[in-house]
Amino acid sequence: MTVKWGRPGPGVWANTFLVLALACSRSPSDPAASGSGQPAAPQDRSGAISEPILPLTARPAEDPRLVKLGSRLFHDPILSRDGSVACSTCHDLGKGGDDGLAHSRGVGGKLGLVNAPTVFNAALNLAQFWDGRAATLEDQIDGPVTHPLEMANDWGTVERSLNASPEYEELFSAALGAKASRQGVQRAIAAFERTLITIDSPFDLWLRGDAQALSAEQREGYQLFKAAGCVACHQGQNAGGNMYQRFGLFGDYFEDRGNLTEADNGRFNVTGVAEDRHVFRVPSLRNVELTAPYFHDGSAATLPDAVKVMVKYQLGKELSDDQIGKLVEFLKSLTGPRKEPVASQVGVAPR
Amino acid sequence: MSRNQKRLAATLLLGCGVAVAIALYFKTQPVSTQQRAKVVDGLAVLQTLDARIAQETLAARYGIAPSYDPLTESAQGFSTAQAELARDLEGLVVDHPELATALQQLQEQALRRAQAIEHFKTQNSILKNSLYYLPLAAQQVSAALGAAGEGSSSRSGAGPDATPSELDRAVSELVQVVLTQNLIGGRAESVRVEERLAAVKALQPRVPVPALERFRLLVAHASTVFRTQQLVDPLVRESVLGAGVNARLGELERSYGRIFDAALREAALYRSILYAWSTALLLAVVVVALQLRSLYARLENLVSERTRALDQALKELWGEMELAKKIQTALVPQQLTLRDCEVAAVMRPTAQVGGDYYDVFEVDGTEWVLIGDVSGHGVPAGLIMMMCQTSVRSVLAACPTIGPDELLTIVNRTLTENIERLGEDKYMTISALRRDPDGSFQFAGMHQDLLVYRAASDAVEHLPAQGTWLGLTGNIRGMNPVRTLRLQPGDALVLYTDGITEASRDGQMLDIGGLEKTMVAHGAGSAEGMLAGILQTLEGYEIKDDVAAVIIKQLAPRSAVAAA
């Protein structure tokens, strides 16, 4: 089969004009009118949800043996050089998948360079880390294990210490039919992390048609979220996580904050392209209520603080405290329960 | 060339032929239809994703798609499929720099496009944020200006406050040209936007203070739309037109197609060669098989011919043996008569031709009785026996009264010589008895002991054989002492060969004792009666050798002359 897509003909352009005209007539809705938003999410004619944020859905089932091993590894400080730091030290599943610190502490109490992002729904991100330097969860795992400020270990040591443990010998053998290896550790932890999806948040329930799932204030907050332009970046299933954006579009955030660090360069550190300076992966807003402090530098202690910074530097708008309050209320509706097996229950096949 | 060498050469040739066929077969294999299917599938997937990326980019640009998820997914799918295709082509790339170049160019373009997509998403979000806000910002400025007009007259700049209608007009003109420019994106529109922006910025110092902040925001967003639109549209073009990805895909497809076609042609060529070669090989095998068949047919003919010849020879041989047997039978005396005696005799050869010999005859009034046994059986034994008989008859025809020892000496000379000529390792036992006119026997020779039934004592008398065998040495003169035997009426002389005494039953030989008993048992009867008795005794015995016996029973002399 060959699908040809050449230069668009006049018909295509004509269509796009029409589409653009429609888009322009619909999208810039008045925040003042947002209070009269529909009780439930609007749907298109086919019954599909026609919102920029879509509900989270179950992912393909992972091998339960692999998930069990991954969970064990995720919670085991054996991966760190001095046995003091586990993945779960900074990505505490009981604290929204991170540690509540502006900068996490690695082995010997060393301070990390950026704020630890949550592991929940990380599988949905287009890439991992704030600067997107790891394309997959598997690749990402290499980072914290070997980073001198995090676990400060090397894979040879990790493999040796895992292979010295009868428990891991059994777990690896059951999950992968092999001895412990770097690839095995990466596969197992990534498989575990792919089960960390927070399905059925109130907002998702509302999107699916449960009009009672959101309060009126939250509904207004959502309309404001769309009208104020937040949704330009925080869209998709993960309400973000699927693109990069420069921090500081209206105003220079970094000059205002001061103390420029190398980490502030963001994606520029990966691509070396000048226009990628201060560009970061747009974080998911799911469970954002639980993941304070905010931003790559952990500079915003509370959610209203973070929203204010975003409105100022990213949207270039003025919003009242009341409007910000509504936005925060809406954001809280993105907190979802984790339906996947918790650490004590792993081994049960995920849904 | 010997037959073995020929066979070896044929085997070697066949082996070489098969080896060439196998080599040809492997030459037809580089074209893997499975790999081709994977590559074709991979290319199709990439082309589909390429088209989808273009569609989704446009959808994102013009607000049809509410999120970047589909575009992100397609872009990630594209890199995954591209990596897979590169793996599928790994083997081919090494040998085909043209393909390697096409693949590398595709990867470079795809990477550029992937970067373009990311930058597009970034810039498009900025654009959307400002674009959608712009009409609202205009409204807000207008509202603020209205409020300011009613209220104070505070100044923000040097000049007098601009009138609300003047500002309103300038703002709405700006919004209009910016939106138009965003739609059309032409050069002329850009110039107009620049003009309007400059005009609005020029008015800024004259904006009343309460409306100033909103005015600034409007200008900032209008500038953002203008600037970002100029960034976004080239990125859209790069993403939609695939930054040449589509062309590279086509090039890769053509390049792979050329390589595959070439490989296909080559494989087809080798396949035809293989077919031709296999046919030739098959023909060769058929020819060889046919030759083998004719060879076997010839061999079979030869075998049957030889068998026939052998059969013939065997028949002839049997015929000869029959003849020899006939001669032997013919040589056995038909008339067994001795003066004043009853004579009974038997000859039963085990083989077709036996080695036993006896003769009873009369020459010029002298009667002779002979018995002997050639070692072994068969034709050679029979021949020697015949020689002996002829020789005996010849000598006695010339000298009927010759001494039995002398007879044996002469016969032995002839016999020994002939046995040597025949190259047979044979000898002969013989006893010769000459019956003189007075009825007494002069006898000599080293056959079996002579057994004499004495009617008077009803017992058997042994006359041990003394002398030497014939055929061992040329001259036996003086080696066979001559002795005399007289028979009284009723006495019976039994001459026999070892076929009788060595007949056995249950491992027990009949022996001379057994023979004696039979003789005594039938001592009163006739010679025939005694012979019948002996043969009856032999029934139930296993006989391994020729059997011959001569029984001479002395009767009362018609001349009434009794031997003393």
- Please tell me the CATH architecture of the largest domain in chain A by its name: Orthogonal Bundle
* CATH fourth-tier homologous superfamily of the largest domain in chain A: Cytochrome c-like domain
> Tell me, what's the shape of chain A?
globular
- Measured between the Cα atoms of the first and last residue of chain B, the distance is 88 Å
What is the subunit arrangement here?
heterodimer
Please give the count of helices of chain A: 13
How does the helix and strand content of chain B classify structurally?
Answer: alpha+beta
Cα(first) to Cα(last) distance of chain A is 35 Å
The main sheet of chain A orders its strands as 1-2
Question: Overall pLDDT of chain B, averaged?
Answer: 86
Question: What features would you describe in this structure?
Answer:
The complex is a heterodimer of chains A (351) and B (564). Chain A has 351 residues and is mainly alpha-helical. Chain A has 13 helices and two strands; from the N terminus they run αααααααααβααβαα. Chain A has two domains: 10-58 and 199-332, Cytochrome c-like domain (Cytochrome Bc1 Complex, Chain D, domain 2); 64-196, Cytochrome Bc1 Complex, Chain D, domain 2 (Orthogonal Bundle), CATH 1.10.760. Chain A has helices at 10-26, 64-74, 87-90, 137-146, 155-163, 166-176, 182-194, 202-207, 216-227, 253-257, 268-271, 303-315, 321-332, and strands at 244-246, 279-281. Chain A has a two-stranded antiparallel ribbon. In chain A, helix 2 packs antiparallel against helix 6, helix 4 (137-146) packs across helix 7 (182-194) and helix 9 packs across helix 13. The longest helix of chain A is centred in the first third of the chain and has 17 residues, at 10-26. The two termini of chain B are 88 Å apart. With 564 residues, chain B is of the alpha+beta class. Chain B is rod-shaped, with a radius of gyration of 69 Å. Helix content of chain B is 64%, strand content 12%. In chain B, strands 1-12-9-6-7 form a five-stranded antiparallel beta sheet. A five-stranded antiparallel beta sheet of chain B has the order 2-3-4-5-8, covered by helices on one side. In chain B, strands 10-11 form a two-stranded antiparallel ribbon. Chain B has 13 helices and twelve strands. Classes of the chains: A mainly alpha (351), B alpha+beta (564). At the A-B interface, helix 1 and strand 1 of A face helix 2, helix 3, helix 4, helix 5 and helix 7 of B.
